[in-house]
Amino acid sequence: MLSLTKVINVKSVIVSALAVLSTWICLRLGIKADFPLTLIATAIVFPLVFSIGTAYARREKALEEYGSLKAHGRSLYLASRNWLPTTNEARDSELKSALHGLLSACHDMFTGPVVAMPNYEARIYGEFDRLSHFVTAMRDAGLAATECGGLNQFISRMLIAFENLKHIYEYRTPRTLRAFSEFFIVFLSVLYGPFFAFQADHFRHELFFVMPILFVLILVGLANIQDHLENPFDQIGQDDVAIHPDRFIETLDVEVTGAASAR
Fold first, then answer.
1. Is 184 helix (H, G, I), strand (E, B) or coil?
2. What's the rounded Cα separation, in Å, for the pair 192 and 179?
3. Are 37 and 196 in contact (CB under 8 A)?
4. Closest CA to 212 of 19, 65, 58
5. What is the per-residue pLDDT across 17-71, written as a single tens digit (0 to 9) for each?
6. Is the CA virtual torsion 69, 71, 77, 82 positive or negative?
7. Which string of DSSP letters, residue by residue, matches 201-260?
8. Sign, CA torsion 168/169/175/178
9. Domain segments of the chain: what residues?
10. Residues 18, 216: Cα–Cα separation, whole Å
11. Tens digit of pLDDT at every position of the chain (263 positions)
């Protein structure tokens, strides 16, 4: 039921009411016409399908970059635990704190308004600076220069992943295309009143208004799906990308504990 409310909402009811009113007026006045449905496909369906496909591709890209961010962060942690002969709990704790701070800042930025992005960027770049100091600490502890270079590559890839996530968050699918589709959903729902009145000759009286309502529910439903996919971080739809800093840090400890018990 919750998913249904994401597709059918107040906008669906309002536009359906306009379509029904237009059909009723055309029936009363005897205004009927057999309009071609290709106009609907050209003006609404094709742009909506293109927008949905683009928004879905952006979400998949966001998942890929988020996975890269976590994977390279986990690689840094495993290097801290295993690449030197002796462990350093203080260094490991500092690294976990930096990784948690980084993901927490990313969560706060991506779920907040775009206008507040500069404030969160400062926090995120500060956490990357802490990660850079972690590599320095590993070098001072005796890690080979080539291996330190590998750790710097991990951080570089995390930076690339964050920048890609930031651009997905900041930029949307073409707004003019979305506005175009939304305008024609309302406009054609009213304009096609004569077409629905023409089709009503083939139905019983109690089914006169089924076609305009079904027509609107399909088109507005597609538009609502596109809206929910538009921002993959807003946590409104069920398909959004969720960032869980605490869960990520907990899995680091579970993984180390499991390895220790196996030995």
1. helix
2. 20
3. no
4. 19
5. 999 999 999 999 989 988 888 888 888 888 888 888 888 898 899 999 999 999 9
6. negative
7. GGS-GGGTTHHHHHHHHHHHHHHHHHHHHH-TTSS-STT-----HHHHHHHHHHHHHHHH
8. positive
9. 2-258
10. 10
11. 446 666 788 889 999 999 999 999 999 998 998 888 888 888 888 888 888 888 889 889 999 999 999 999 999 999 998 999 888 889 999 999 999 999 999 999 999 888 888 889 999 999 999 999 999 999 999 999 999 999 999 999 999 999 999 999 988 777 788 888 889 999 999 999 999 898 888 777 777 888 899 989 989 988 888 888 888 888 776 778 889 999 999 988 765 544 444 43
* Tokens of residue 88, six digits: 């350093």
- Give the other-Cβ count within 10 Å of 151's Cβ: 23
For tokens 């651009």, name the residue: 167
- One-letter amino acid of 38: T
Q: Which long-range contacts (CB under 8 A, 24 or more apart) does 54-60 make?
A: 54/173, 55/173, 55/226, 55/229, 55/230, 56/229, 58/168, 58/173, 58/229, 58/232, 59/229, 59/232, 59/239, 59/240, 59/241
pTM of the model: 0.81
